[in-house]
Design brief:
33% of the residues lie in helices and 10% in strands. It is of the alpha/beta class and 342 residues long.
């Protein structure tokens, strides 16, 4: 990659939806004419296996990066992190930070929430912006935002360079040896080789508190722990396609299935009404998340020729002993429904 340029990656939608392909093509055609940008196109991020050229390319990018995908930005960012592509998460006005609830300060006064354990990766000092291609039908809004990000990235590079010069005042004598391994080159054809569809959980480590409930709940060997006893997705291809059960039992909404139909499980911003792991049918006598998760797990166990276990294995009634606190989004929604007398 040329010095001073930002890498922009378009991650294609799975399938051949003509409207999605048109947006990708229009955006690519415009970005090819933009100065200061290195453009690449890869298949759907979620499907890239460890040996896919698109994944290897992403791992080789050393600097700031903008990734446009048909995913929630939170899902795309932690998916990249899971694949070893680390950096500081960039913020975009296209996806503003979810504001706190009205009662959030009062909640924090009553109970101190454990912080997320954070990513274990020590990647390059760079920023990664993730944009959701589902938010706008036209390419122009993304083009303008990428221009804004490119200008912001240039300022960040200057700041990093100034900091580096301040922290390293001693001159380094060059011996004429290469300072870093040259980046490998990839052909567009190899980048766009169609991968097989995949299904596995992605952990948002900014929310994960390492409670290990997912490890206890999952009976298919998907989860494990690293050398520091931190939870990780150890055998992602052991996950059962279409099953999101472990996400339902996570007390911190830290487990994401990027391709799932429900926004809350697919990585929607946490804290607003769209992030609740419910639908309206659940409000009128439906089963709670724990019951649904146990049934989903049982279904997969039976398909594997094993015995169903129901709620007898690692299904906890979390917070049952917790005293009543301020009302949350769900309480507010229920109150609104009550007031409508329906």
């Amino acid at each position: 990659m040329s010095s001073g340029k930002i890498t922009v990656v378009i991650s294609q939608a799975p399938g051949k939806n003509p409207a999605k392909r048109a947006l990708e093509e229009n955006l690519a055609a415009s970005l090819l004419l933009e100065p200061g940008i290195e453009l690449s196109i890869v298949p759907h991020l979620y499907d890239l296996g460890p040996d896919h050229t698109g994944r290897l390319f992403l791992e080789s990018v050393p600097g700031d990066m903008v990734v446009l995908a048909w995913l929630f930005p939170r899902a795309a960012y932690w998916l990249l992190d899971r694949d070893g592509i680390a950096g500081t998460e960039g913020q975009s006005p296209l996806h503003p930070v979810v504001p706190k609830d009205e009662d959030e300060d009062e909640k924090e006064d009553q109970a101190v929430k454990a912080p997320g354990i954070g990513s274990a990766l020590e990647g390059p000092k760079r920023t990664i912006w993730c944009l959701d291609l589902r938010d706008h039908a036209g390419h122009q809004v993304y083009l303008e935002e990428i221009r804004r990000i490119s200008a912001e990235a240039a300022l960040l590079r200057k700041a990093r360079l100034a900091q580096k010069q301040t922290n390293q005042p001693v001159a380094v004598i060059s011996l004429g040896l290469p300072t870093q391994k040259p980046a490998p080159s990839y052909t567009p054809e190899s980048l766009l080789e169609t991968p097989g569809r995949r299904w596995y959980p992605v952990i948002d480590y900014s929310r994960c508190t390492n409670c290990l409930e997912c490890l206890d709940f999952c009976l298919f060997g998907v989860y494990g722990v690293d050398g520091l006893d931190r939870i990780l997705v150890e055998n992602q291809d052991s996950c059962k396609k279409g099953c999101p059960a472990c996400s339902r039992v996570c007390p911190e909404q830290a487990i994401i299935f990027p391709d799932y139909k429900s926004p809350a499980i697919a990585g929607a911003p946490v804290g607003n009404i769209s992030g609740l792991k419910i639908d309206l049918s659940k409000l009128f006598g439906g089963e709670d998340a724990m019951v649904v998760a146990a049934k989903e797990r049982d279904r997969e166990l039976v398909r594997d020729g094993r015995e169903a276990v129901g709620q007898t294995v690692a299904v906890k009634r979390r917070h049952a002993e917790k005293p009543a606190g301020p009302k949350d989004d769900l309480d507010g929604l229920l109150d609104t429904l009550d007031s409508l007398d329906i």
